[in-house]
Design goal:
The structure is a homodimer. With about 130 residues, chain A is α+β, with helices and mostly antiparallel strands. Helix content of chain A is about 15%, strand content about 35%. Chains A and B meet through α1, β1, β2, β5 and β7 of A and α1, β1, β2, β5 and β7 of B. Chains A, B: It is found in: Cytoplasm.
Chain lengths: ~130, ~130
């Protein structure tokens, strides 16, 4: 486990970028950050554990909403500063807005275009 | 154009993370950074233009190697701090090591496993 950490280049804040991609659709779901502990827990628990910069604490994805990301593959890029997680997105919702993924705004000639519907309202996701 | 920039949350260094994904295979190719000028040029030129943190200058992807990334879709995530480019990767090589993409190291029980062959040597890519 320590060997993996040695090859990861954490930034000045002790964080590394982590992209999550759906193992089935190959959609890019989200991008978040991990500290060393989050990396270790992700590998140990075989589910995505991030570090929340706003809350300054570990963030087990899906802990509240149930939308856990089960790990299929943990890859590191050539220069060691970006992780790519291939995951099974339980519930099919990765975004806190209740959409399948976070990249629902697309640049068009008329400004941003919203191209994903909300599957479940945030209220329903977090208060059930 | 300015409208797009207004919605992007650049970090303290004036940068935003940008993920490139292949429009055909849906493989995640790489992650790099953009400043405001790189964002503007990417949208204007319809090709990926990044900001190289090591060289501290604009980096028109493929300028030296020919491995240009033609833009198909420019998406922004829910909190505005990550861009997802859907691109056509000219030459099929996104990584400076000569591989199809940068995520060729996978965590396994026996350490990192290399799971992509080099398509073209870096020497051949940059010196031709």
């Amino acid at each position: 486990m320590n060997d993996f950490l040695n090859d990861i280049k954490f930034n000045e804040q002790g964080l590394v970028a982590a992209i999550a991609q759906c193992v089935h659709s190959k959609d890019v779901l989200m991008m978040a950050w991990m500290n060393a502990e989050a990396v270790t827990l992700t590998l140990q628990e075989q589910r995505a554990v991030y570090y929340s910069r706003s809350r300054q604490s570990l963030w087990r994805k899906g802990e509240q909403s149930g939308n856990v990301q089960k790990l299929h593959r943990f890859a590191l890029d050539c220069d060691g500063d970006t992780i790519l997680l291939t995951v099974e997105q339980v519930g099919g919702i990765a975004c806190h807005t209740g959409r399948g993924n976070c990249f629902y705004k697309t640049a068009s000639d008329n400004g941003w275009q919203i191209n994903q519907n909300v599957i479940k309202s945030p209220k329903a996701m977090y208060n059930e």
